[in-house]
Every structure is written in C-alpha cells, then in structure tokens.
Amino acid sequence: PAREIMRRLQKQLPSYRIKWVSAAQFHLTFFFFGDVDVQVIPSLIKRLQNAVSQIPFFTYSLGEPGIFRDRSGPRVLWLGIVAPAALHELRKAVDHAVAPLGFRPDSNAFHPHITLGRFLPGQKMTPSLYNILTETKSHQTSPLYSAKHLILFKSELFPAGPRYTPLTRLDMNFQPPNS
C-alpha cells in the first residue's frame, strides 16, 4: 500500500519538484542518533535490546499522507503510521534507555511516518496540494502489519541518496499481551 500511495501521489503531483524515496528505503525513523563513537555502539545495542525486549510486539497500519513544512514551504511528503499505544511506549523505552549514554530525543513531538519524498526548495503550499492529500486520505485502506523488532541502522549520506546499513536487529517480546 505505501508504494501504491506513492505512485498515486507521483501521478497527481507532476508539477511539484519532489525527490522521491525509493520504496526499498522506506522505514520508520524511531530515533536518530547522529554521529556515534564506534566505542559506544556495543553499550548502545545492549541498552536498546534490554529496552526493546520488554515491549510486546504489536500491529499497526498505514495512515494518511501529510506534509512537514516550514516558513518557506513544504519540506517532506510522508505517510503516517496509525500508532497503537505500544508504539509510543516503545519510543519512551528507547528514549529512557539511551539517555544515560548522552542521547536526547528530537525536541519535536514523535510523529511516526514513512517519508515518501522531499520537496526541492522554492515550492509553495497550494490549495491543489491540500486537495490531493485530502482526496488520497479518503480513498485509502491499509492492512495490519506486525512490529516484532527494531533494526539499528548506520546511515550514510551520499549525493545519490542515503545508504542504510543494518547493524543489529533488536527483537521485541514475543509473548502476547495478557498471557
């Protein structure tokens, strides 16, 4: 469904200059660590695994498309995640686990989403852009997906786009709730 929604938006937004994300790069950024000293990574992984393993796996669905913007105009076109309470509990657990290592969460509120594309500079918000997003919202249904683990990625930026290299998989608690 995320690919289908992105394809639909690509067809509906040809006049906007958007750098579209490859579907193979779709992900939910749960916490951005920035530059991390290689010697801190083992402690970081251990703390994350301890936190993540306490949270039961859960299901989620894709939500509505939206836009992050600033004063100059639209910046990011995204697809929301319909987030159960467990996703927010997981975020809090991660925040708490990494704080002793000096990592602080983004000051913006956590808004779970998948980035579909980035608007190139100079774009303006227009009524037609709002209308397209509203129309896409009203025609969308999503299956349920299972969240069973987090993956810690190394992110490197290159002119052709980011490269994400998985460092480790952090498994959630596989005990069903209330068992």
What does it look like?
The protein has 179 residues and is of the alpha+beta class. The chain has a single domain (2-149), classed as Cyclic Phosphodiesterase, Chain: A (Alpha-Beta Complex). 27% of the residues lie in helices and 32% in strands. The protein is built from 4 helices and 7 strands; from the N terminus they run αβαββαβαβββ. β6 and β7 form a beta hairpin. The protein is globular and about 50 Å long.
List the helices and strands and how they pair.
Layout: H1 2-12, E1 18-20, H2 41-52, E2 58-70, E3 73-82, H3 85-98, E4 113-119, H4 127-138, E5 144-147, E6 149-158, E7 161-171
Question: Which terms would index this structure?
Answer:
179 residues; alpha+beta; Cyclic Phosphodiesterase, Chain: A; 5-stranded antiparallel sheet; globular
* CATH class division: Alpha Beta
Number of strands: 7
User: Can you list the strand order of the major beta sheet?
Assistant: 1-4-3-2-5
Rg, nearest Å? 18 Å
Q: Number of helix segments? A: 4
Number of domains: 1
Q: Biggest β-sheet: count, sense, barrel?
A: 5 strands, antiparallel
